[in-house]
Every structure is written in C-alpha cells, then in structure tokens.
Hints:
There is one protein chain. The chain is α/β, with parallel strands linked by helices. It has three domains: 214 residues, FAD/NAD(P)-binding domain; 106 residues, FAD/NAD(P)-binding domain, CATH 3.50.50.60; 104 residues, Enolase-like, domain 1, CATH 3.30.390.30. 32% of the residues lie in helices and 25% in strands. The chain is built from 14 helices and 24 strands. Strands 1, 2, 3, 4, 5, 6 and 19 form a seven-stranded mixed beta sheet that branches. Strands 8-15-9-10-11 form a five-stranded parallel beta sheet. Helix 1 links the parallel strand 1 and strand 2. Helix 3 packs parallel to helix 6. The chain starts with a strand and ends in a 6-residue tail after the last helix. Nicotinamide-adenine-dinucleotide binds next to helix 6 and strand 20.
Amino acid sequence: xxxxxxxxxxxxxxxxxxxxxxxxxxxxxxxxxxxxxxxxxxxxxxxxxxxxxxxxxxxxxxxxxxxxxxxxxxxxxxxxxxxxxxxxxxxxxxxxxxxxxxxxxxxxxxxxxxxxxxxxxxxxxxxxxxxxxxxxxxxxxxxxxxxxxxxxxxxxxxxxxxxxxxxxxxxxxxxxxxxxxxxxxxxxxxxxxxxxxxxxxxxxxxxxxxxxxxxxxxxxxxxxxxxxxxxxxxxxxxxxxxxxxxxxxxxxxxxxxxxxxxxxxxxxxxxxxxxxxxxxxxxxxxxxxxxxxxxxxxxxxxxxxxxxxxxxxxxxxxxxxxxxxxxxxxxxxxxxxxxxxxxxxxxxxxxxxxxxxxxxxxxxxxxxxxxxxxxxxxxxxxxxxxxxxxxxxxxxxxxxxxxxxxxxxxxxxxxxxxxxxxxxxxxxxxxxxxxxxxxxxxxxxxxxxxxxxxxx
Length: 456
Ligand code: NAD
C-alpha cells in the first residue's frame, strides 16, 4: 500500500513525486510514456531549445552591427534537431535518476483511477492494481484543433509534430496567435521561413498587456511575419502545391499549417466518471486550497485542472500543494496571483499579477507607470531598445501587476513577482538599488516613477 499513487509523470505529477520525500511518503508514479510529460518531451524544453537556435542564428545574422565579421548564417536543421533531442534526452535521464534517488516507484503503463488506488494496463494488455491511500491525477493535456483542420501530422500539424520537423518548412500558416503560435512565429521567422499568423481575436496573445504585445508585433512585422488578427480561417484544402488556407476573400498557400488553438485536458477513460469526480468541460474541478477533487483522497494537478493556468510551473506548485495536504492535512494553497507567465518569443513578453485592463474592469483605482528601454544604457549596448516595463499599483496601495517586453523579460519579471506576491508598495520596492548597467534598471526607474520620485 503506497501513501500516494500518481497518474501521469509530467511537471505536476513528477513534482508531487519528488516533493513527497520531504514527508517520507511512499510513492508510485504511473506513466505510459517516458517521464517528463508535455513540458519536457513536447513542450517547454524542446520549444525553448529551438528558440535558442533561432536566437544564435539571428545574433550571427546581425554580427556586423557589433563590429564582428562573420559570413551570413545558414541553418543545419538536422544538427539543430539533434541538439534539441540531446537536451530533452539529457533532462529525461536526469529526472529518471532523481526519481530513483528519491525512491519513487515508476510504473510503466496506462493508469486508471479505481477504488483504493490505480489500475495499470501495460503494453501487452496485462493489468495490475496499485493500492494507495491517496491518488493524484496529473494526466495533462493534448493539443486541440478546429473544424476543417484534421491533424494529419504532415501537412496539418500541432506543436507535437512541429518540434520534430525533419526539415525547415519554407511557408507556414499558424492558426492561433496565443503563446504557442507566437513562439513558433518567432523562431520560424528568425530562421527565414515565411510565416502567416492567424488569430481570431483582435490582438496577438489575447488578454496580455497590449503595450507589451505591441513591442512583439513590431518585431514580427520587421521580420516579415504576416499577422492577421480578428481573422477566422476557412477549412484547409490540400493541393498539389501544399495547403490552401482561405480567410475572408483571400487565401494563402503554404507547405504546412501549424494549429495552435489551445490544449484540451486528458480526462477520458481514466476512471473519473466511475469515481464520481466532478468535471467542468472536461477539466477536473478541485478545491484550490488543497487541490483535492470532489472525492476525498483524490487530487488533481497540472493541465487537467479547471481554472488554473496551463503552465509547467503552475503544475509544479499544484503538485507541492497536493502533497503537503496529503502529508499534513493542512491546506497550503498555491499563490496563483503571483505566478509569472513568460512568452519566450524574441523579444520575450512576461507578465505577473493582474493586467491594467483587468484592474480597470474590476473598477480598481490604479496608477500605471511605464518605462521604455530606449534610454537604458545596457539595452543600447545590446542593440535591443524596443522593450517596455509597466507596473500597475493601487492608488496609495501595493503593486498588483506588471508586464515586461524585452529579450530578457522572462528573467526580469521575477523581481516584480516578489513585489506582487509580497504586496509591496512602490516606494518599498523602489528603495532597492539596481546594478548599473543592467536592463533591469528599467524596472528600477519604473518603480521610482510609481513611487512619485523619478530619476532619469
Ligand atoms: P492559447 O490559449 O495560448 O492560444 C490559442 C489562441 O488561438 C488564442 O489566442 C485563440 O484566440 C486562438 N484561436 C482559437 N480558435 C481560433 C481559430 N479558429 N482561428 C484563429 N485563432 C483561434 O493556446 P496555445 O498557444 O495553443 O497554448 C496552449 C496552452 O499551453 C496555453 O495555456 C499556454 O499558456 C500553454 N503554453 C505556455 C507556454 C509558455 O508559458 N511559454 C508555451 C506554450 C504553451
């Protein structure tokens, strides 16, 4: 009898499995693939590895600007693909080793929730029953599609296949201008593919600070990305020359269509109905204080959970929260309000807390302060002056949100994460001195302005 059986070895599941050692809990982790989940195998890690290749490529392409003579770069796609796989395989090996060191029993097979634990079916159809006092469902999500875009893995693909493309596509239509759509548009346009980006809503990265998104849109336009916001595409048509994507009165023919319209939870055929667990449009409903489902002793974490962000680091935090409740009986809720979101495009867009628009919708009395990178020494040195910082504070109150657009935004956002998480007043956060010359000085300047005492 295990203390915990976990179905799914992605970030939510493996974080729960790893964290359990802090309380001496015995853990079985059931996984049908290799451990790592979407993030490690077909998400964050491979995508960011490709984005790194794109960054090196574009840095070399503009080397002359910095007085460095280099021939114009060309991409050895196969070598980049091999590097991507090497990074993924190395991290999977590391994770497997860590799980072993923590004495987690990794059980190969397909897990289904049953009374008193999990039933595991292996590749040959054999079943075994894992008895456990608690179960955590961490089965993740899969890419969705839209009518007229049946995924064939060749001409019409999702990010799952795109991360393993064997050669560079010349012309790509991306349906969906959310996080995945924008990250692929960024990397493909950096390495010279022709990119058409279709987004149904009026802005790329809907819901994200529009001023930060404008910085990205400007870069996309410079790189020749054809952006079509407020646009619905008609059904795709496979032709001798590729795939025809109709929109309005027009159409574009491309080599491949990448569908990036969101991800659906994996909650079919895992025993939820039989266990009487409440779901909402396929997502598992949990008590956000403890991550427990409607059935005592059964928890859910990660992308399957209703109403929490589909982010690996949210999954980690939810896994930790569930394990803490299992071990101690005390609720240790995730502080969702201060979880940063990073879009790893070039430039990156990073946000934390609530947006300016959301604060206004809620009728809050707010003070919004912004600062561009144009006068920031380090940004000028780097030749990257297009960025912005925005800080949202309640009038005479704490910092409640922030947005940064800059190539380094994903790392820079974390000081604002603390400000939002600790509900710092602008003058409290502004009291600390940023190192000079750094890009983060732009945050320091914004905080000074927010405190009513600007410097430059
Ligand atoms: P998303 O929800 O971020 O974006 C999907 C986009 O597709 C939306 O903007 C939506 O308006 C648009 N859309 C939907 N139907 C459409 C249609 N018919 N035509 C045109 N546009 C349409 O989803 P995603 O980009 O697929 O990513 C899935 C999840 O994975 C998200 O929750 C995302 O946060 C997460 N993810 C995060 C990261 C990161 O944090 N860097 C990276 C990749 C994925």
